[in-house]
């Protein structure tokens, strides 16, 4: 760049000097040509003045008319100044011309002073009244002819000088044009060479860098520039490649972190949705296997008899061998990664499975596994199991794998703890609901076998007493009759209460007749659609009955309804119950009274769900789903 710039500047300087000299010569030649023209013009003006002097004097001499004296007088007045101008201009052109100009000026002045003025003066004074014009005319013509001859010689010489000046100017112009053309060609050649060099050394690398930078911005982090340039461009290429490598490394690290966080969010979402532990196990094994680029992932639960039960497993798509089957048990005896984790309760790794002797270790060795990393699964402070990532690669898994596994094992522990808590809560709810139902049955039985029977016996005794009342005791007979009627009313109320506690028709006939009887006793019209053709589990029937009873009672008392619809179906081994009214709405399980809260507890104790909605903003619809099989207790603890 410096050399090329110096050469270009030197060429421009030389070209400028040459052009300046040529232009100066051209300007000098043009100046001389211009002065020559001025001299010729001055000579012509002086010649015209002499001619006006001759013609004016001659006309006055011949005619004695003073009209001819006006141009003569003007020419006489202008002659000295014009003669001086002519002499000055001639002196600036050439020394010989200056001498010739002096001769012409002296001859013109002599003609004016020695001939023309005396002639006009003599004629004016009348001193030559008889003077004949012929001799005067001859003298004047002689003098003018001599001047004309001098003028002709001066003009001829001046025109020769002008021609020479013009030739010199043309020569200088051609020389300047030639020099300008040579300088232009040299400049263009140098510019082309300089442009070619800049294109090769600067433009192409910079354009390549811009294209690769655009590729880099689009995410193509593998682009690299060839490090072939010199100077600052070479530094740019090396810096670009360093930046690209750094971006690629950072992108890989960020992508790995993003993938890990996305996997953790997916697992955490499963845990938050209260998914089953086995679903969490399978998801964790798959996510962790993809994150760690492992070949196999196994999650095992430690058993009391030094056995481990596989609760979750995964294998990569490239592996043809199957992962350990879920539910299979493996011995922990011998040298193994699982034994080390169980003994220490800390993460561990095994880099040589050729000497592994445990059940899982032997399985891994036969599948070509070379190394494994394990992390303990801890549930509420106790060691529950282990999660192991196996790889068949030559190189062992990188450092920090165990730390990346800890977050997943914590989520597994949380899922197990949540499942155990939900199982305990469900069992507790089921025990409470069962105890409540048993209490209702006992109260209903006690009322039926005790109070109701005694009331019936007492009514019969009073009727007997009424028949033996003597005639004339009408007041006593009426009081006994009134008492019997009152006892009958109390008995009916008591029977109604006992049917509400646990209707006998439910125990004898099932949901169909029980719900129909409930609808007949309701204070509003109830439409029934009962698609049920068999008896169900006792707890399920009781729950469905009380849900319908509570929903109908709540709608009648609080919702200002005109119609209640009840639809009961069996869908996918589950009871689907829908209770809908057209009232003002507002009933929400968990937010309403104790009745709806009790229904929610009863449904969830059976592993079901209850939802409330207000379609169209009016009325209330309760959607209940209860599995036909009772909820089982947890099987995920040791």
TrEMBL record:
Q: Per its UniProt record, what PROSITE patterns does this chain match?
A: HAMP (PS50885)
Subcellular localization, as worded in the UniProt entry: Membrane
Q: Which reaction does it catalyse?
A: ATP + protein L-histidine = ADP + protein N-phospho-L-histidine
SMART domains from the xrefs? GAF, HAMP, HATPase_c
Domain (HAMP): residue spans on this chain: 200-252
EC main group: transferase
Identify one Gene Ontology CC term for this UniProt entry.
Answer: membrane
- The residues forming the signal peptide are none
InterPro entries named among the record's database cross-references: CHASE3, GAF, GAF-like_dom_sf, HAMP_dom, HATPase_C_sf, HATPase_dom, Sensor_HK_TwoCompSys, Sig_transdc_His_kin_sub3_dim/P
Q: Which Gene Ontology terms cover its molecular function?
A: ATP binding; phosphorelay sensor kinase activity; protein dimerization activity
Keywords, in A-Z order: ATP-binding, Kinase, Membrane, Nucleotide-binding, Phosphoprotein, Transferase, Transmembrane, Transmembrane helix, Two-component regulatory system
Q: What is its EC number?
A: 2.7.13.3
Domain of life per record = Bacteria
Q: Extract the PANTHER family matched here.
A: NITRATE/NITRITE SENSOR PROTEIN NARX-RELATED, NITRATE_NITRITE SENSOR PROTEIN NARQ
Q: What is this protein called?
A: histidine kinase
Species assigned in the record: Actinoallomurus iriomotensis
């Amino acid at each position: 760049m410096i050399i090329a710039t110096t050469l270009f500047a030197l060429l421009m300087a030389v070209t400028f000097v040459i052009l300046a000299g040529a232009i100066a010569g051209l300007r000098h030649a043009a100046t001389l040509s211009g002065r020559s023209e001025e001299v010729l013009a001055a000579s012509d003006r002086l010649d015209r003045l002499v001619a006006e002097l001759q013609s004016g004097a001659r006309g006055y001499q011949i005619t004695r008319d003073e009209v001819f004296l006006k141009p003569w007088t003007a020419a006489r007045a202008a002659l000295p100044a014009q003669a001086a101008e002519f002499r000055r201009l001639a002196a600036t052109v050439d020394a010989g011309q200056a001498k010739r100009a002096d001769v012409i000026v002296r001859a013109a002045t002599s003609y004016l002073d020695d001939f023309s003025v005396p002639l006009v003066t003599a004629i004016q004074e009348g001193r030559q009244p008889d003077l004949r014009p012929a001799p005067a005319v001859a003298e004047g013509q002689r003098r003018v002819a001599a001047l004309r001859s001098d003028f002709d010689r001066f003009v001829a010489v001046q025109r020769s000088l002008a021609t020479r000046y013009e030739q010199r100017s043309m020569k200088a112009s051609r020389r300047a044009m030639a020099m300008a053309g040579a300088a232009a060609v040299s400049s263009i050649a140098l510019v082309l060479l300089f442009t070619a060099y800049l294109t090769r050394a600067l433009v192409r690398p910079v354009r390549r860098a811009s294209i690769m930078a655009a590729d880099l911005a689009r995410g193509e982090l593998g682009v690299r520039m060839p490090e072939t340039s010199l100077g600052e461009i070479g530094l740019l290429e090396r810096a670009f490649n360093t930046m690209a490598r750094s971006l690629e490394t950072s992108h890989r690290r960020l992508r790995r972190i993003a993938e890990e966080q996305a996997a953790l969010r997916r697992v955490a979402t499963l845990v938050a949705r209260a998914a089953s532990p086995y679903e969490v196990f399978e998801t964790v094994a798959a996510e962790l296997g993809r994150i760690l680029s492992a070949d196999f992932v196994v999650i095992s639960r430690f058993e009391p008899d030094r056995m481990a039960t596989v609760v979750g497993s995964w294998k990569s798509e490239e592996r043809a061998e199957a992962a350990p089957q879920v539910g299979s048990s493996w011995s922990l005896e011998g040298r193994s990664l699982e034994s080390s984790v169980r003994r220490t309760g800390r993460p561990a790794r095994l880099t040589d499975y050729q000497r592994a002797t445990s059940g899982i270790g032997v399985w891994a060795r036969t599948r070509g596994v070379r190394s494994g990393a394990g992390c303990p699964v801890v549930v509420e402070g106790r060691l529950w199991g282990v999660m192991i990532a196996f790889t068949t690669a030559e190189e062992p898994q990188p450092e920090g794998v165990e730390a990346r596994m800890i977050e997943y094992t914590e989520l597994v522990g949380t899922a197990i703890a949540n499942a155990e808590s939900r199982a305990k809560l469900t069992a507790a709810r089921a025990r409470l609901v069962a105890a409540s139902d048993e209490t209702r049955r006992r109260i209903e039985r006690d009322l039926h076998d005790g109070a109701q029977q005694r009331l019936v016996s007492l009514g019969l005794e009073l009727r007997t007493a009424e028949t033996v009342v003597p005639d004339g005791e009408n007041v006593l007979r009426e009081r006994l009759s009134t008492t019997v009627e009152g006892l009958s009313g109390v008995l009916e109320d008591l029977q109604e209460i006992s049917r509400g506690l646990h209707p006998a028709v439910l125990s004898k006939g099932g949901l169909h007749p029980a719900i129909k009887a409930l609808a007949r006793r309701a204070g509003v019209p109830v439409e029934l659609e009962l698609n049920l053709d068999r008896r169900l589990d006792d707890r399920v029937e009781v729950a469905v009955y009380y849900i319908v009873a509570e929903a109908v009672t709540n709608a009648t008392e609080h919702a200002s309804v005109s119609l209640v619809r009840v639809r009961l179906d069996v869908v996918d081994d589950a009871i689907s119950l829908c209770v809908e009214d057209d009232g003002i709405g507002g009933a929400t399980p968990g937010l309403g009274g104790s009745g709806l809260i009790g229904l929610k507890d009863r449904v969830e104790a059976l592993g079901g769900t209850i939802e409330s909605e207000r379609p169209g903003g009016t009325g209330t619809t309760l959607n209940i789903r209860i599995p036909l099989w009772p909820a089982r207790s947890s099987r995920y603890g040791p």
